[in-house]
Amino acid sequence: MKKLPILFVIIISATGQIIAQNKDSLWAVYSNKTQADTNRLKAIQAIAWSCRSNKPDTAIILAEQELTLAQSSKQKLYEAKALNTIGLAFMNKSSYPKAIDYFLKALKINEEIKDRQGIGLCYINIGIIYYYQSNFQKALEYYFKALKTREEIGNKRDIAACYGNIGIVYQQQANFQKSLEYFLKALKIFEETDNKQGIATCYANIGIVYVGQKNYPKALEYDLKSLKMRKAMSDKKGIAICYTNLATLYNKLTNYKLAILYSDSSLVLCKQLGDINEARYAYQDLATAYSKTNRYKEAYENHVKFKQLTDSIFNADNSKQLSDMKTKFEVDKKEAELKIKSDAEQEKLKAVASEERKRQQVTISAVAGVLLIVVIFSLFLLNRFRITARQKIIIEKQKQRVDHAYEELHEKNKEVMDSIHYAKRIQTALITSDKYIDNALTRLMNNN
Predict the structure, then answer these.
(1) Domain 1-153 is in which class?
(2) pLDDT of residue 139
(3) pLDDT band at 18 (very low <50, low <70, confident <90, very high)
(4) Rounded to an integer, what distance in angstroms lies between the CA atom of residue 275 and that of residue 267?
(5) Burial class (CB within 10 angstroms; exposed 0-12, middle 13-18, buried 19+) of 126
(6) Could you tell me if 158 and 15 are in contact, meaning their C-beta atoms sit under 8 angstroms apart?
(7) What residue ranges of the chain are covered by domains with CATH 1.25.40.10?
(8) Fewer C-beta neighbours within 10 Å, C or N terminus of the chain?
(9) Closest listed residue to residue 208, CA positions, set 236, 239, 246, 240
């Protein structure tokens, strides 16, 4: 399973910085209806935004309250912010159709009020969803739209983030040269602005690109750079990612001892963080390393753990949800409403649907054919059984007749034999014996 590069989602989304206040004080401002609507909207927006990743359901509820207040007070800017926050919360719940619906609504309002910052944010978020859907061409289209708005505004941090995400799409398309070009552009800006998080992320992604090019020494160089920065920032999640990247790399370098060491180190951090996604990559690397060193028992055990974690992430419900998203995804419908949907895409969708119907028809025909064969064969067996049963009955009756005839013949034969024996006894009684005749002849001869 290919390790995915790190998206610059957090960097892009961080445009809406939350107010440096605790949630209780923010909630107090929002709850105080004597406050100006703008202050109340800022407060509820800050709270909802802070919950978008770790508590998406809460973020949705809060952002909906913000949306209601923004609509009643006719503040389009916060209406768009609320819609965008809801979209991000649904995106973090992997509810992509709903997420893109809200992003497109937010985009429409931002275009009405000519908020370039908001427009760019919507573009990048829509691009991220296309990326998650593996529609890389559309992802690039929206990333470049976002880049254009960022360049117009002149926000270097966001420009660098756009470069980074464009590089990721090219990397997924195995266009490593273009990918490296954009990662280096992003890295240059992050270094200029001293954005350590961005620099470390670029290092990690550049390392992945070099692995794709089989330039393992350069990959090792950038992985170690990223690890050094992550440790300096005490970024445990980033450190765990670096460890698994290094484990994968050392497996390719056939240094299985180090591959096992870094995988184990990653697992320690993943267990502390509860990061099962990164942990499964560590188990996968361990399974590879152990199998290459003929430690098949350990390889099997770690492969089983990898499969268990993978199944826990992509279980039957998630698989069904992903399948439903492919069939029910309404991006094109929403884009049509906003006049950003092309006829070519419509034809493509129709072709996909038509092909799917054909496959279903073929499947149904095949199943029906198999069932028909089974029925015919069953009828044949039933008919043979009936014939066999009738033949058995006939044979039984014939046997009974033969047995009866034999018994009658035996009785008649016995009567004949008894008659013969009786006649013989009578004959024996009537006929003079040979000894008597001889004695009579002897006496007669002597008398003469």
Answers:
(1) mainly alpha
(2) 95
(3) very low
(4) 9
(5) buried
(6) yes
(7) 1-153, 235-314
(8) C
(9) 246
Q: Are 118 and 151 in contact (CB under 8 A)?
A: no
- pTM here is 0.65
Residues 393-432: b if buried by 16+ CB within 10 A, e if exposed = eeeeeeeeeeeeeeeeeeeeeeeeeeeeeeeeeeeeeeee
Q: What is the CATH number assigned to the segment(s) 235-314?
A: 1.25.40.10
pLDDT tens for 284-336 read: 999 999 999 999 999 999 999 999 998 887 764 455 454 444 544 444 454 44
Q: Which two tokens stand for residue 127?
A: 């691009």
Q: Give the pLDDT score at 434.
A: 58
Q: Answer whether 142's CB lies under 8 Å from 132's CB.
A: no
Q: Which two tokens stand for residue 349?
A: 């969708």
pLDDT more than 90, % of the chain: 58
Whether the CB-CB separation of 204 and 245 falls below 8 Å is answered with yes
Question: Which of the 8 DSSP states describes residue 254?
Answer: T
- Residue 46: CB partners within 8 Å, gap ≥ 6? 18, 19, 21, 26
- Residue 224 CA, chain-centre distance (Å), reads 32
